[in-house]
Design the sequence.
């Protein structure tokens, strides 16, 4: 079974840095939001290669569906 | 005629004044209901007045809080002025102006220590708030993670806390 992993680092001021792996596309962001209650407090988001790969895969699937 | 006068530092903080009076050997004593039974002054004493070991015709010279500052109440002629306390380093009576000048100097030093103490208390308060914030964040992350089926592993690295959350889907 696939594993989802979140590494949360709490800094000395209570600020958070979180890195996810094993999530599909944008679900990583919503998972983080549910986990960390991030509404309105994110200062920076950097998406990973895994995220982009998933997004490309989605687009390709869409194109394939349209092509059919 | 011309004149130059210099007023003393306004003695506004009781704790600082008491420290300054201790430093000049004035052996301050705050008047209580009990001490009113044994102490007297021609102008009257009130609970909360600060007695010194200096007396004059009117009785013990003392500070009273009036108009936002502590004022020394004494006989204007300083008649029969003496220092009474046995424990005083010097029992030599100095004129009120001289006495207040030394109290003023010590008050300045004590005030600086007072500010340092306040700064230290504020620093400690901010540090406690920071620790509480970190702890609250840690608890929130772990509670939410467990509720969502993650297993939690926690590592402390200096001032930072790393929480590794894993789950299979």
Sequence:
């Amino acid at each position: 079974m696939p594993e989802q992993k979140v590494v949360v680092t709490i800094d000395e001021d209570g600020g958070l840095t979180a890195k996810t792996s094993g999530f599909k596309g944008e679900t990583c962001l919503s998972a983080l939001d549910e986990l960390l209650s991030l509404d309105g407090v994110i200062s920076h988001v950097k998406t990973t290669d895994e995220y982009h790969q998933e997004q490309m895969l989605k687009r390709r699937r869409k194109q394939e569906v349209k092509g059919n | 005629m011309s004149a130059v006068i210099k007023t003393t530092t306004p003695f506004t903080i009781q704790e600082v004044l008491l420290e300054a009076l201790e430093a000049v050997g004035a052996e301050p004593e705050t008047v209580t209901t009990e001490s009113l039974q044994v102490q007297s002054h021609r102008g009257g004493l009130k609970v909360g007045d600060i007695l010194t070991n200096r007396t004059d015709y009117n009785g013990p010279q003392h500070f009273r809080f009036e108009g936002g500052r502590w004022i020394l109440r004494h006989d204007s002629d300083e008649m029969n002025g003496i220092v009474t306390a046995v424990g005083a380093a010097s029992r030599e009576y100095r004129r009120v102006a001289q006495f207040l000048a030394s109290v003023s100097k010590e008050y300045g030093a004590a005030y600086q220590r007072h500010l340092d103490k306040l700064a230290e208390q504020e620093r400690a308060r901010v540090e406690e708030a920071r620790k509480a914030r970190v702890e609250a964040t840690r608890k929130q992350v772990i509670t939410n993670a467990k509720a969502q089926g993650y297993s939690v592993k926690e590592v402390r690295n200096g001032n930072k806390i790393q929480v590794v959350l894993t789950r299979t889907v």
